[in-house]
Design a protein that fits this description.
It is a single chain. The chain is an alpha/beta fold and about 280 residues long. Helix 4 packs across helix 5. The longest helix is centred in the last third of the chain and has 21 residues. The protein binds 3-hydroxy-5-(hydroxymethyl)-2-methylisonicotinaldehyde (PXL).
C-alpha cells in the first residue's frame, strides 16, 4: 500500500484541510499519515476562531519518525500558517524525500482575488520557496497570481493561463497545475504544464453555478491521491475534477446546506467506483 504524509492544519469544524484529506486519501486506498500544523476551532472564514499553533511539534514528531525508519511515497502539503513553518516544512521534505518521492504542494492561501484573513503578501511570496521544491503544485488563479506577481484576472484568455503556468514553472515546480480555469463558457477545470515534455494539458467539465469553501482541498486531496496511485495525468485530473463537480452538485441539491463545506462524504462511493474503472 502506498503511504502519503499530509501536512496541514486541523480545523475542528468546517470541512477543509485534514478533515477532508484524511478520509479522501484513505478511501482511495492510501495509508495517510498526518502532521497537523495547528488546531483551529473552525476554519478562518468564521469570526472569532481559536488557533493553537503546533509549529514547535513538527521537528520532534518528524525526528521520531526518522529514528523509526518511517518513509513516505509522497508528501502533500496544504494550508500552513507562518513563514517559519514553511521553512520547517521544506526541511521535512528534504529529510524524507528520495528519488521516488512525489512532492505535491497546494499553496492554499486565497481565493477570488484575495488572500485568506490570516495571510499577507509576504507570506504569499514565501510560498514560492515551497513551490520551488515541488513536483506538482495546484494553485488557483488567485494563489498563482500572488506567487508569480502576475495580475489576477477574472476574465482571461487561454494565453493568460499559459503565461501563468510558465511563470509557475520558472519558480521551479516540475508540473504546475492551475485550478478553477475556464477555457470556454459554461466550463471549468484545470490546466497544467509538464516542464519535462514541454506540453500543456487540461481537463474541463461543466461549471456548476455555486462556490463552496473547501472545494480546493477536496480537489487537491483526490488529485494528490490519484498521482500517488500512478494514474496518468489525464485520468488524475478527470477523477479529481469530476468528483469535485459532483460533490458541489450534490451539496447544491440540499436545502439549508451549511456554507462551511461540501458534502463530500455522500459522493465517496462514486469516487471509489471511478477509481475501480481505471484500475481494472
Ligand atoms: O480550505 C483552505 C483552508 C484550510 N485551513 C484553514 C482555512 C482555510 C481557508 O480559509 O482557513 C484553517
Amino acid at each position: 500500500m502506498k503511504r502519503i504524509l499530509t501536512i496541514q492544519d486541523i480545523s475542528c469544524f468546517g470541512k477543509c484541510s485534514l478533515t477532508v484529506a484524511l478520509p479522501l486519501l484513505s478511501v482511495m486506498g492510501i495509508e495517510t499519515v498526518i502532521l497537523p500544523t495547528a488546531v483551529l476551532s473552525t476554519h478562518t472564514l468564521f469570526k472569532g476562531f481559536t488557533c493553537k499553533d503546533l509549529s514547535d511539534q513538527l521537528e520532534p514528531i518528524t525526528n521520531h519518525w526518522k529514528q523509526e525508519g518511517i518513509t513516505f511515497d509522497a508528501i502533500y502539503t496544504g494550508y500552513l500558517g507562518t513563514e517559519e513553518e514553511i521553512d520547517t516544512v521544506i526541511g521535512i521534505i528534504e529529510t524524507f524525500r528520495n528519488k521516488n518521492t512525489l512532492v505535491f504542494v497546494d499553496p492554499a492561501m486565497g481565493d477570488n482575488g484575495r488572500l485568506y484573513p490570516a495571510f499577507d503578501e509576504h507570506y504569499a511570496r514565501k510560498n514560492a520557496d515551497l513551490c520551488a521544491v515541488a513536483d506538482i503544485v495546484d494553485p488557483n488563479i488567485t494563489e498563482a497570481s500572488f506567487l508569480t506577481g502576475l495580475p489576477y484576472k477574472e476574465i482571461y484568455t487561454e494565453d493568460y493561463i499559459k503565461e501563468m503556468l510558465l511563470a509557475l514553472a520558472d519558480i521551479g515546480t516540475k508540473t504546475p497545475i492551475l485550478t478553477g480555469v475556464s477555457l470556454s463558457d459554461g466550463k471549468t477545470g484545470a490546466m497544467g504544464y509538464d516542464t519535462k515534455k514541454r506540453e500543456f494539458f487540461h481537463y474541463q467539465n461543466d461549471r456548476i453555478p455555486a462556490s463552496y469553501h473547501g472545494t480546493g482541498d477536496v480537489f487537491s486531496s483526490v488529485l494528490a491521491g490519484a498521482f500517488v496511485l500512478d494514474l496518468d495525468r489525464k485520468d488524475a485530473l478527470r477523477i479529481a475534477a469530476d468528483y469535485t463537480a459532483l460533490t458541489i452538485e450534490e451539496t447544491l441539491k440540499k436545502p439549508g446546506t451549511p456554507w462551511y463545506g461540501v458534502d463530500f462524504e455522500s459522493t465517496i462511493p462514486v469516487l471509489i467506483d471511478a477509481l475501480k474503472q481505471i484500475r481494472l
